[in-house]
Amino acid sequence: MSIFNIAKGTEFEDLARNLMQAEANGTMMYYALARLAKEQGYDDIAPIFIEAANQEAVHAGFYATLIGKYPQNFWSLVRGLEKAETCGEVKRPSRTRCAQPVFRRQPMRWKSSRVRKDITAS
Ligand SMILES: [Fe+2]
Questions:
Q1: Do both 63 and 80 map to the same domain?
Q2: Number of domains present in the structure of the chain
């Protein structure tokens, strides 16, 4: 049984939306703490914050699914994400710069051949 959008129209919908945002905020906070910990030489603590951030992201995704934040048929969204995450590297004119974070990002690559096939098929 899918949990997609089951909170829609229920008394729980607003709470689920607020919890989703709180978990997303927790994700950002823990990743920021991990970065700050590394900057300050606490290399042993940073992975703990990263794990906490990962868990918060899972929780945020759970609530996002409950309220149907993203489409159940997600492949068109994934195709758009892939283009954004690779910064349109194929189509980008050579002198145009992408908005890049301070660190150099690796292009999103799909490891699973099944996923690759699904993306190109739809
Ligand atoms: Fe959480």
A1: no
A2: 2
87 conformational bin, left if phi > 0, alpha if psi -120 to 50, beta if neither: left
Query: Do 66 and 77 have their domain in common?
Result: no
What does the pLDDT read at residue 45?
97
56 C-beta neighbours (distance < 10 Å), count: 20
Give the pLDDT confidence of 38-95 residue by residue, as tens digits. Answer: 999 999 999 999 999 999 999 999 999 999 999 999 999 999 999 888 865 555 555 5
Measured in Å, residue 23 CA sits from the centre of ligand 1 at 5
Question: Do residues 24 and 51 share a domain?
Answer: yes
- Ligand 1 centroid–CA 17 distance in Å is 13
Based on the domain organization, do 58 and 97 belong to the same domain? Answer: no
Indicate the pTM of the whole model: 0.72
CA of 34 to the centre of ligand 1 (A): 16
Q: How far is the CA of 103 from the centre of ligand 1 (A)?
A: 27
Provide the sign of the torsion angle of the four alpha carbons 53, 62, 101, 107, taken in this order: positive
